[in-house]
């Protein structure tokens, strides 16, 4: 299986509009970050998208991705769901509703933001989704076992997802001991890391991620959901402990 980082940035993306810091003005493509999203390619070449933010269209085009079989949503914040309307070409091509897997709470929010996709009589050209409400227990789809990992993001619960020996977690600032049991003996762990310093009420910062790396001991850990406050990619990546890496848009990891 493969995971491709379609986006590794925070809700504002990088560069940030109007910012002239060294990261936002960097010419290194690794310092340009779309909103966080990944594409999982299964052993049968099926495509599982995790989150669909405002950069979804450009992410698909730049990565030469032509299909999504299902989408998993971590939570309802706009930088993770507001691109769902751009799934229309994929829905039209397949002739089928796009399956979305998420919390019941998240499904309600999707219906509020895209009511026209769920209307009894939809206008021509509207997207169409099939909502599948999931709970914090493993499920099987597309011949793939998926284990949700429930984490805390400020005051709401968010799902990370585990496939085989890889786990992807974004938008978290707390993981319980019970959920950490799912993160043992991993080959690859992906964690959000918004900045180097100054505690954040809703996201891990670098010292938090380093502590989790030492505690959970995955073979590799990739940082995502990165803001311009973390620093330049090539400099900061070299300073990380061995086995830790800054993810960047377009990076592909096999597992």
UniProtKB/TrEMBL annotation:
Domain named Metallo-beta-lactamase: residues: 46-226
Lineage per the UniProt record: Bacteria, Pseudomonadati, Bacteroidota, Flavobacteriia, Flavobacteriales
Lineage: superkingdom: Bacteria
Signal sequence, renumbered to the chain: none
Identification of the protein by name: Phosphoribosyl 1,2-cyclic phosphate phosphodiesterase
Pfam families, per the entry: Lactamase_B_2 (PF12706)
CDD domains per record: metallo-hydrolase-like_MBL-fold
